# Entry
Amino acid sequence: MNVIKVENLGKRYLIGHDKKADGAFRYNSIRDSIYHSMRGVFQKIRHPLSPNKENITLEEFWALQDINFEINQGDKVGIIGPNGAGKTTLLKLLSRITHPTTGSIKIKGRIASLLEVGTGFHQELSGRENIYLNGAILGMRRLEIRKKFDEIVAFAEVEKFLDTPVKRYSSGMYVRLAFAVAAHLEPEILIVDEVLAVGDAAFQKKSLGKMEDVSKEGRTVIFVSHNMLAMSKLCENAILLNKGRIQKQDRVNLVIDEYFSKLYRTIESENFTIDNFRREPNEQKEIKFVDITINNKPHASIDIGNNIDIHFKINSMINLQHVNITIQILNNLGEIVTTILSMDSENSFNISKGINSIQCSIEQIGLYLMPGKYYITAGINKVIGSKACDVIVNYPAFEINNTGLNSLSIRHDRPGVFYHKKINWNKRD
# Structure
């Protein structure tokens, strides 16, 4: 029995902007919009017959178009896609936070949503009061909430702050309590966005375990995350969104493969730059990555056992000393295979103003990476222990191919991350 049925769903927004003197569009902030609106009112009062000189233009933007899918009771479904694909818009429509422009959504059952820090709680109320408020919103009676109350508090680990207004909670405390409420008050459908990334590793593991328990009880889970390892462990099926449309619906591992294959196709396109990939926001702009190549290519296919040379071009606005680089190599499920820090090799770099080149050479000796696709997340720090100035996330760096496997006498489909180059077996009597 399906509990969610989406047909021909579309969501359109109108974006206001005006033209500059050269005819290009200048996009307005909220402050600009308020200013222009008030200015237009006063202009009409003073000159009621004058035309509108602000030249405001409204542009249609379709965040979602032609979305069709069904989710059955007890399904665990992942929503995957790059930033701006429409994932959060879709969840807001499913949660009835906003209304569709076209199409329909049919839902059977109560929904509990955890979309972003700050959603669903009243800032002036205490944690205790918000538990009861959220339960009431879900249609639960006070007695039902009271039965779950101790379990919610224990899971969230906020007992000391239960009677403190939630506006004074840290983001981690807030998310722990919000997730505990959403997961324990027995909704038929639980929707969880990337917000769990705010919590620490232990809480994320506990939350994934709770979502598995929820699904085993026959309830439905919809999960959005950039953590493909968590996605593959929790979800059975997935939907891949890109530019507001569904690109693929299938078993979760097949959808994850398609998602990463698209990243590889992007890097092979003619207009590729590293700015196409997700960067962590940072206010420090003195130094940034401007190019990454692997074995002298934007993306390399490397024979098993061969060296991996990662070459960074870095642009600095100032002269800097003791700059450090951190590299994480990840597999196609988002698992961190290894972390490399330049300071581990007693290397830090003096960076000159302008473009600088730094290369990291990785020799595969003793342990070979198994065939498959690999990604890197790279960060650069001005001072050891300081917050990174720039971070490139999940850059599709290289693929270890099957060439040479026969000579090594190994199967390429064996589980694991590394192949041990030399292992001695001996029978001992």
Q: What stands out?
A: The first strand starts at residue 2 and ends at 19. Residues 11-61 form one domain. The CA atoms of residues 103 and 257 lie 29 Å apart. The chain has three domains: 11-61, 63-263, 274-420.
